[in-house]
């Protein structure tokens, strides 16, 4: 119930206006967000790299309502790629297609992502298109397939284990030779399209992780700072992580070919534990002023995050 309320609030304009006016809310959000500017985010990337951790950089923003905002977002990503390359840091980027105009005009979104991916390819960087709520999934796939057909191969997707369709999507992506991130999913979806029970989401996550690891045995790619491997598993759930580690060992996949991905500000102890055990670990680092929807979804994901926020309220 609490999760459903928080996800509803993440999309409510009245709640956005209210919460973003609270100083303590921005202070609490700073735990999960690298800063308002690209320069602040770069400092965080360098700190994480110094700990032996890779990064995927995300410029916060989604569901833009004008072509001008979509074009500005694309320019911001082009600038981030220049800075990543100039600084020589170990990072790729993630984008949300609704930030690039998916809900305004398909051709606009295609053009923006094409420009970003082309620039990224110049620097050997992979671009990950996040999967958002279910209403965008088919259109996101359409953008992905269109650019792949044009020969743009340095773009990947995400697969959410709470969707019924994800096993079929996983197999299709693997057959296409595409890279993607496996996650559980952070939106409120209808039981018509998504598993309503956590146990089923977890079971599907493990099933998809096995498919990924098996495919990685054939592919043979290992993790690098700018390009994640085929098996990129995004979770903070110790049970899901243990399952993937045990299955990797059972089938003999090298540790370097299984990358764990986690969010900035969550379970730094687990991040370091996995890195020290020899696994590549990539941290999803968001920055920017459009922090509200992202922050509310983080509160919805884990009770500990919500308690952190409430404690900041009482601290004033």
Brief overview, please?
The protein is α/β, with parallel strands linked by helices and 316 residues long. It has 13 helices and 8 strands. It folds into 2 domains: 1-33 and 291-316, no CATH class; 36-288, TIM Barrel (Alpha-Beta Barrel).
State the main characteristics.
316 residues, TIM Barrel, 2 domains, 8-stranded parallel beta barrel, 13 helices
Model description:
Helix content is 53%, strand content 14%. The chain has 316 residues and is an alpha/beta fold. Strand 7 (258-263), helix 11 and strand 8 form a beta-alpha-beta unit. It is globular. The model is unreliable at 312-316 (pLDDT under 50).
Cα(first) to Cα(last) distance is: 26 Å
Whole-number mean pLDDT: 88
Which band does the percent of strand residues land in? 5-15%
Q: Which residues sit in consecutive blocks of at least 5 with pLDDT less than 50?
A: 312-316
The SSE string, one letter per element, is HHHHEHEHEHEHEHEHEHEHH
Please bin the fraction of helical residues: 40-55%
- Under the CATH scheme, which class of the largest domain? Alpha Beta
Instruction: Trace the largest sheet across and list its strands.
Output: 1-2-3-4-5-6-7-8
Global structural class: alpha/beta
Total number of helical segments?
13
Shape: globular
Helices and strands in order:
Elements: H1 2-11, H2 13-19, H3 23-29, H4 38-50, E1 54-59, H5 67-87, E2 91-96, H6 106-122, E3 127-130, H7 137-149, E4 155-160, H8 166-175, E5 180-183, H9 198-219, E6 231-234, H10 238-251, E7 258-263, H11 268-276, E8 281-287, H12 292-301, H13 303-315
Parallel strand pairs: 1-2, 1-8, 2-3, 3-4, 4-5, 5-6, 6-7, 7-8
């Amino acid at each position: 119930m609490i999760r459903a309320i928080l996800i509803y609030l993440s999309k409510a304009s009245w709640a956005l206006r209210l919460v973003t006016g609270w100083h303590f809310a921005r202070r609490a959000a700073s735990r999960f967000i690298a800063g308002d500017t690209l320069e602040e985010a770069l400092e965080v990337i360098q700190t994480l790299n110094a700990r032996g951790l890779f990064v995927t950089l995300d410029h916060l923003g989604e569901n833009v309502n004008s072509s001008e905002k979509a074009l500005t977002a694309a320019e911001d990503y082009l600038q981030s790629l220049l800075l990543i390359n100039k600084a020589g840091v170990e990072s790729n980027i993630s984008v949300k297609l609704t930030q690039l105009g998916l809900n305004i005009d398909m051709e606009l979104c295609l053009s923006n992502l094409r420009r970003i991916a082309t620039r990224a390819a110049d620097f050997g960087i992979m671009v990950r298109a996040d999967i958002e709520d279910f209403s965008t999934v088919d259109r996101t796939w359409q953008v992905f397939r269109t650019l792949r057909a044009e020969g743009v191969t340095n773009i990947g997707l995400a697969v959410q284990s709470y969707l019924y369709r994800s096993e079929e999507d996983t197999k299709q992506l693997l057959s296409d030779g595409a890279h993607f991130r496996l996650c559980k999913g952070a939106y409120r979806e209808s039981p018509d399209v998504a598993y309503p029970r956590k146990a089923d989401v977890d079971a599907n996550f493990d099933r998809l992780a096995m498919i990924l690891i098996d495919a990685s045995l054939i592919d043979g790619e290992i993790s690098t700072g700018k390009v994640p491997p085929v098996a990129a598993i995004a979770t903070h759930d110790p049970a899901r992580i243990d399952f993937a580690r045990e299955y990797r060992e059972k089938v003999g996949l090298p540790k370097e070919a299984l990358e764990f991905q986690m969010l900035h500000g969550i379970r730094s102890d687990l991040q370091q534990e996995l890195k020290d055990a020899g696994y590549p670990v990539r941290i999803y680092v968001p920055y920017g002023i459009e922090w509200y929807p992202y922050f509310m979804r983080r509160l919805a994901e884990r009770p500990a995050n919500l308690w952190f926020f409430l404690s900041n309220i009482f601290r004033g």
